[in-house]
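Customer ticket, subject: "Can you confirm the structure for Methionyl-tRNA formyltransferase?"

Message body: Hello, I'm evaluating your service for our small team and ran a test protein. I'd like someone to confirm that this is what the system normally returns, since I don't have a reference to compare against.
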Amino acid sequence: MKIVFAGTPDFAVPSLRAAARHHEVVAVYTQPDRPAGRGRGLSASPVKLEAIARGIPVLQPESLRRRSAQAALRELAPDLMVVVAYGLILPQAVLDIPVAGCWNVHASLLPRWRGAAPIQRAIQAGDALTGVCLMQMDAGLDTGPVLLDQSTPIGADETGGQLHDRLAEMGAQVLADGLGLLRAGIRPVPRPQPEEGATYAHKLDKAEARLDWTAAASVLARTVRAFDPWPVAEAMVAGERLRIHGAVALDAGHAAAPGTLLAAGREGIDVACGQGVLRLRVVQRDGGRAITAADWLNARRDLVRTADR
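Agent reply: Thanks for trying us out. I re-ran your input and got the following:
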């Protein structure tokens, strides 16, 4: 079976490997190289690097709405197109080209968390369960019927990065299962998504990373986890801007104004929230690296260190 694969970030790499394991991947589509790093030199996507290593031709159109791009895809005569975090919209004219249509691997249990950032939004919302879906694509945004899915609990301390890596491997397995069925002459039965329970996972914005101390500590702790490793939560603590890499919510009462430093010791830095207390465990100063709360306190001699709890 001839497959065209479309993907861009790290999340898509395990799925590309799964597609190439037993099928002919005739081409890989990925977004154009983008400036990255301090030198702002052009950087290839992780999917492009994987494709080159496998000797698979790479195409990087700016858009698939152009007739020339659609003609190039049509010439490949794919049986199936597999799309995983590609980042470009596929118009109906493209969806109609592959014989078996287009499949998408999505990192949520649809219809919950359609959109760009399902992994982080699931953690931020306090979801207990998430997973991956293999979906038959239609013209809507993650609205197509589900072919296969797999669920998993979200760990109590799991970060966005950790869940990302787990779901990337799960997505590759679900894709492999679907391709295995096709190889056996069995087409997965599509299940239309219910509209009830549909939510949208908006793209992450760095402006969201600023913690609002008037919120509940439990909400802030989830945000810290969700935004690690990007965009990384940040806040003003004792007059200093810190990036927060690790924090836990304490169910503790207080009468202090939100943002007040309540205690500081080896176990962490306790900050008053609108409800409860957020204990900061791993922080990062401007221009520095991530350090423990104890190391930050050692550098802040102006602060009174409380007895370790």
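A couple of notes from the result: The chain has eight helices and 17 strands. The chain has two domains: 2-201, 206-299. Feel free to reply with more questions.
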